[in-house]
Design brief:
By secondary structure, the protein is mainly alpha-helical. It has one domain: Orthogonal Bundle (Arc Repressor Mutant, subunit A). Helices cover 61% and strands 6% of the residues. The chain is built from 5 helices and 2 strands. It has a two-stranded antiparallel ribbon. The chain is globular. The chain starts with 5 loop residues before the first helix and ends with a helix. The relative contact order is 0.19.
């Protein structure tokens, strides 16, 4: 799945920016190598459930990877290489 084409990266970028919680999550990922839902919720004044939903969405799209899948709470996540490409695309397209 690492060999995504430019169209897929474009589509994922639009998917992220189209929903506020996803964009907040991507912004939070810029500032942290490893992150937990509670950290993002605290920083963004969103509920942990709202951020957890976004994390599940990102994980299903291959944008992030859970480092602690055996845990039921306090899971830690990192961006995948696809997630990093999408983050760069969003920065280039929407923040220049």
């Amino acid at each position: 799945m690492d060999s995504m084409n430019e169209t897929s990266i474009d589509e994922l970028s639009v998917w992220v920016v189209s929903v506020d919680r996803r964009l907040l999550l991507m912004e939070a990922m810029k500032n942290h190598t490893i992150i937990k839902a509670s950290d993002i919720a605290h920083e963004t004044n969103r509920s942990t459930q709202n951020i957890s939903r976004a994390l599940r969405e990102f994980e299903n799209k291959g944008l992030i990877k859970c480092l602690t899948p055996e845990k039921t709470t306090w899971k830690k996540y990192v961006l995948t290489s696809i997630g990093k490409k999408v983050m760069k695309k969003i920065d280039d397209e929407y923040y220049d």
